[in-house]
Each structure stands twice: as C-alpha cells, then as structure tokens.
Design goal:
By secondary structure, this protein is mainly beta. The chain contains no helices and 16 strands. A hairpin with a 5-residue loop joins strand 10 and strand 11.
Length: about 280
C-alpha cells in the first residue's frame, strides 16, 4: 500500500479483495461502482459452498470471503462479505455456532449487477445489521443494508444522501437494537467524494450530516465504533489539495458529528485509518 492514496482501488461498492478497505470509498468516483475482479481473491476464504446463500441459483464459486464479523456471544458469530459465482458478485453471510461455520441465505438486491456486505454489528443472536453496497446496470453504486432476526435476513431501504451517487457503506456499530450508526462515503452533486453517516432507529435509516476537512479533495469514513448512544468514533481518511492523504476521525455525540483532530506519522506521504474500537467514551 505504498504510494498515494489515489493510486489504490477503493472497495466502495466492490468486494474487498484489494486491501484499501473503504479507506476512501469514493475517492475516484468512476471506481465506486466497479467490482475489482482483477484483484486477487481474499486471503480469508470460506470453506463452505456459498451457493446456498442464493436460493434458486446454482453458481460455480470462484472465490468467497468475509470482510466483517460480529460476535454477541462466545458461541455465536455472524460474518458477512461476498462471493463470486459465474462472474456475479453476491452478498455472503455465515453463522458460527461455536464449532463450525455455515452459510445462511442472504438476499441479493433486485436488478443488482453485484452486491457486497462490508460490515456487520450484532447486539444479540436475534439482532444484527449489515451494511455494504450494490451496483446497478449503469455501474452506479448504492448503499445496501440487511437485517438479521435470528433466522433470516431481510433487505432494508437505505436513503440516498441528497443528490449523491456512488454511495457505499463500509462500517457499522450498534449500541442497541434501536440505535446503529453506519459510515462510508458518496459523491455529492459537485462530483466530490465526501464522508457519509446514517442512523438506524430500529425501523429505518436516516442520513446524518458529517463534516469534511476544509479544502479536502475527497473524504471517506471506513469504520465506526459506538461506546453508547451518545458516543461514536468514526475513522477514515481525506485527500488534501496537495494530493497527500491524511487520517480523518469524527466524533458523534448523539446529535451531531464533529471532526476530531488525528495524527499522522512524521514524514508520511499518505496516512489512513481502516478500523476503530471504543470500549468506553474515553
């Protein structure tokens, strides 16, 4: 991952075989709806035939990989990702019962050319929310969300931010069954990739305004962690006017997002954050 941030392929609506995982989901808008099939298959591949996750379809798996996992209990974990079968990339979900993994059917959005789940957060064995993106026939990327009730997945509508395009959700954290925060990026009506945050109230998603660094050419959030309903920290990166990438962190206080100053290593040409975890508010 040496070189400028702009040189890496973002995952956006794509699978995560390339490891610029959500760093600047939307840095290069034209890539945001493209599944990087030229990238190598994920290093962590499922040993389970993912065909079972697409009822009525009998694909020949090329690769499958999990990109996010959440464990509400020691004997219960849910992992999400994507798999490629017959040149179609579809969402993948698997369940860990304490001793083995099994594929659990997960819906592929209607008319989607490809789809991927990038992250999942579970508050219990009967409540998980997963987010990602899908691409349509015009190679446009849109946000994707699915809800797990302990026995099945259902698609949940995700709002389009303003007149935004190339939408992708890359991280999620649920402080409770009625409060989840998802982050990512989208391209605004001025064709600038900017950060994105959405709030789940237990029944629907709503878009919440996020600030972007002054003068940034692009901004994106890769991950989020909530220590409670009034404290979430999101992490990602932004690209300055000098075309150098720098870390970006934002703080949610339950009603608004603010940029929290973050550090970059001395002498770094590009810096970015892909994950964050907050066990407490401090």
């Amino acid at each position: 991952m040496s070189g400028r941030v702009m040189s890496g392929r973002s995952e956006n609506g794509s699978v995560r075989p390339c490891r610029l995982i959500g760093l600047l989901l939307g840095v290069v808008a034209v890539l945001l709806g493209v599944v990087p099939m030229a990238c190598a298959a994920p290093a962590v591949a499922s040993a389970v035939n993912p065909a079972a996750s697409s009822p009525g379809h009998a694909p020949v798996p090329v690769f499958s990989g999990a990109y996010g996992v959440s464990c509400p209990r020691t004997d219960y974990c849910v992992a999400v990702g994507a798999y490629n079968a017959n040149d179609v990339v579809r969402v993948l979900a698997e369940l860990w019962n304490g001793s083995a993994w099994s594929v659990i059917p997960s819906p592929h959005p209607k008319n989607a050319e490809s789809s991927v789940l990038n992250a999942v957060s579970c508050t219990s064995a009967s409540h998980c929310v997963a987010v990602g993106s899908y691409t349509d026939a015009n190679s446009m990327s849109w946000g994707l969300s699915e809800l797990w009730n302990g026995s099945s997945w259902t698609l949940v509508h995700t709002p389009r931010p303003g007149r935004g395009t190339f939408v992708s959700l890359s991280g999620i954290s649920c402080a409770g069954a009625t409060q989840c925060v998802a982050v990512g990026s989208y391209t605004n009506r001025r064709s600038v990739p900017v950060s994105l945050a959405e709030l789940w109230n237990g029944s629907s998603w709503s878009t919440v305004h996020t600030p972007n660094p002054a003068g940034a050419l692009t901004s994106g959030l890769s991950a989020v962690s909530c220590a409670g309903e009034s404290l979430c920290m999101a992490a990602g990166a932004s690209l300055g006017a000098d075309y150098l990438g720098g870390t970006l962190t934002e703080l949610w206080n339950g009603s608004t997002w603010t940029i929290a100053a973050s550090s970059d290593p001395d002498g770094a040409q590009d810096s970015y954050l892909n994950g964050v975890s907050c066990p407490t508010a401090t």
